[in-house]
Amino acid sequence: MEDYTMNSGSPQRKFVVNVAGLTSRTRAMAFFFGINKEVLPLKATSYNTANLIIQEARLQKATAELNEAQGQLDEKQRELDLVQAKYDQAMRDKQTLVDDAEACRRKMGNATALIDGLGGEKQDGLNRARNLTSRFKGWLVTYYWLQGSSPILVRLIKRSGLCCLTTGRKK
Fold first, then answer.
1. Phi, psi of 149, deg, nearest 5
2. 113/99 Cα distance (integer angstroms)
3. Is the dihedral of CA 104, 107, 113, 117 positive or negative?
4. End-to-end CA distance of the chain
5. Are 171 and 164 in contact (CB under 8 A)?
6. Which residues form a coiled coil (predicted)?
7. Eight-class DSSP state of 161
8. DSSP character at residue 168
9. How many whole angstroms separate alpha carbon 119 and alpha carbon 126?
10. What is the DSSP secondary structure assignment for residue 6, as one 8-state letter?
11. What whole-number distance in Å separates Cα of residue 111 and Cα of residue 47?
């Protein structure tokens, strides 16, 4: 007898063997998928649990880094607030100095204008005083000769302030 091979036999036999193989494979796949329906959720759950543990560890690490960064930010913010307060105080002091300097400039300008305006008045007053002094000297000499009393003349000179005008001193 000949050895039995897949190639030996009739074409019908080959067809039947092929159909039997496909049927067997289909049944095996159906059985596999039935079991797989129960196993995959368990796998997914265990995978998700492992993934969840990994993600929680990453979250804790990120939270720790965030807290550390927040602490540094808070410290730097306090330093910034101190420096900002010093800066604001310096700007207020500067503005006060600028305002005082401007007020001083205005006062100096007013004083200069007043001095310039009174400069001519001073000269006019000195000229008038010299003119009056020369007139009073003439009158005093006449009065002295007319009265013949030197104490009266001295009193008149002192009261009129003529001696102060000639010497340039104030009373």
1. -120, 110
2. 21
3. negative
4. 167
5. yes
6. 52-93
7. T
8. T
9. 11
10. S
11. 92
The first and second tokens of residue 66, run together, are 């965030």
Helix (H, G, I), strand (E, B) or coil at 49: helix
Contact 152, 140 (CB under 8 A): no
Q: What are the Cα distances from residue 39, in Å, to 6, 26, 27, 50, 88?
A: 37, 20, 18, 16, 70
Written as six digits, the tokens of 134 are 């020369």
CB 136 within 8 A of CB 160: yes
For residue 129, how many other CB atoms are within 10 A of its CB? 16
pLDDT in tens, the chain (171 residues): 455 565 666 778 888 888 888 999 999 999 988 888 887 776 766 667 777 888 899 999 999 999 999 999 999 999 999 999 999 999 999 999 999 999 999 999 998 888 777 766 767 777 777 777 776 666 655 655 555 556 665 666 776 665 555 555 554
Tokens linked to 37: 């329906």
